[in-house]
Design brief:
Layout (H helix, E strand, L loop, with lengths): L2 H8 L2 H22 L2 H8 L3 H7 L3 H24 L5 H18 L1 H9 L6 H29 L8 H18 L3 H11 L8 H17 L3
Helix pairs in contact: 2-3, 2-5, 2-7, 5-6, 5-7, 5-8, 6-9, 6-11, 8-9
Length: about 220
């Protein structure tokens, strides 16, 4: 654990919450490049000097905010995927969690989506590794286990199917919070995502996933 992380971990829970919530709000509304660490410090009620005692760079703060923003969803993902349920049962539970999480934590999702606009290749690499590595591993493992049990079609590639499944889930995640994805949803379905029944979205996506994982050539 480095000096900065140690200092931040020693802060009170209330202070950590204020800093991270202020950071998430700033990053989600302005994006990484335009976000101002001075404004984040001011909103969190601390000095800029203390902020730099906790985080060496704006990137360090952003990564920490990302970790907080993805923690809720990731913990649910791990619990679901590590259960003994069949893969399609896991998929339904995961879709329901994503719909609920998207509506309740819009700023987290918007900040996550901001990575796609990042132009610094090295920064993108570190950010993606931070939030995608464990998630990819657990999806690949779950699909591999389902394959060994005969729960899914035998000709699938676990890594590619995990990638495709995660893309579908991310698109759903962003469709409730990010303007571009909201408009895409409306163009394809003819209605605003907020006007569409959650049960319709969940059932139709589940049918799509089931056909991909179980229908053989």
């Amino acid at each position: 654990m480095n000096y900065y992380k140690e200092a931040f971990e020693r802060a009170t829970d209330e202070r950590k919450k204020q800093i991270l919530e202020s950071g998430i709000e700033e990053f989600s509304s302005k994006g990484y490049e335009k976000a101002n660490i001075n404004i984040i410090a001011k909103k969190a009620g601390i000095s800029i000097g203390l902020m730099y005692k906790y985080f060496a760079t704006k990137e360090d703060l952003f990564i920490t905010c990302l970790q907080r923003g993805t923690q809720i969803l990731d913990e649910a993902l791990y619990a679901i995927m590590e259960s003994d349920d069949r893969l399609l049962v896991k998929a339904e539970k995961l879709i329901r969690i994503i719909v609920t999480h998207s509506k309740a934590n819009a700023n987290y999702i918007k900040m996550y989506n901001e990575i796609a606009a990042e132009k610094n290749a090295d920064r993108v690499k570190s950010m993606v590794a931070e939030i995608e590595k464990k998630r990819s591993e657990i999806l690949i493992t779950a699909i591999t286990q389902a394959l060994s049990k005969g729960d899914v079609r035998p000709d699938l590639d676990p890594r590619l199917f995990a990638f495709f499944l995660d893309n579908l889930l991310n698109a759903l995640l962003f469709s409730y919070t990010c303007d571009y994805y909201k408009e895409r949803f409306k163009i394809y379905t003819g209605v605003d995502v907020g006007e569409m029944s959650d049960e319709v979205v969940i059932s139709q996506l589940l049918k799509f996933i089931e056909s991909a994982f179980t229908f053989e050539k």
